[in-house]
Design a protein that fits this description.
Blueprint: E1 3-4, H1 6-16, H2 22-31, E2 40-41, E3 49-50, H3 65-89, H4 94-121, E4 122-123, H5 127-145
Antiparallel strand pairs: 1-2, 3-4
Helix pairs in contact: 3-4, 3-5
Amino acid sequence: TTFRSEGEIGVIQHIAGRKHSAEWDEICEDLDANDVNGHAMTPLYSPPVQRQRYGDDKVLPHVGWGDLFFDLFFVGAAYNLGVLLKTIIGADQRVRGCMYFFGSLGPLWACWDNETFYQSRYLTIDYCHRITEVLRYIFVAFAIFNITEFQNYY
C-alpha cells in the first residue's frame, strides 16, 4: 500500500476545499484512513477531485516522478516520428508517407493533449486511476514502438 504524510493529506484536502460539505466529507474520511503507524493509506477508488474552483487562489500541481517518467514516452514518440519524417523526404511516395506520419502523430498527440488537460483539472489519489494510467501507457508504448522508417513498398 502507498502511505501519505499528513502534509500530503492536508494539500489534498486543501485542493478539494470542500471538506465541510456532505459530498466531500466521505472522500476526506477515506483519506484519513490510517494504518497502525498513523500513516494515511491510499484508497482503492475515490472520485477525481477538482483542483481549483473559479475564484479560489491558484494552487500549482506537484509534478511527481511518475509524471516525468511517463512524459518520456512522448519524447520517444517525437524521436521516432522525426526519423519517420526524415525517411519520408527521400521517398518516392511522399503522399503515402505523409499519411503514415500524420496517422501516427494524430492519435499520440490527442492522447497527450487529453491527459495534460485532465491532469491540470483533476487530482486522482487512488489505485484504480493509477492502474488505468499504466495500462494506457502500455498501449502508448506499443504504438510508439511500432512507428518505423517509411519504406517504398510496391
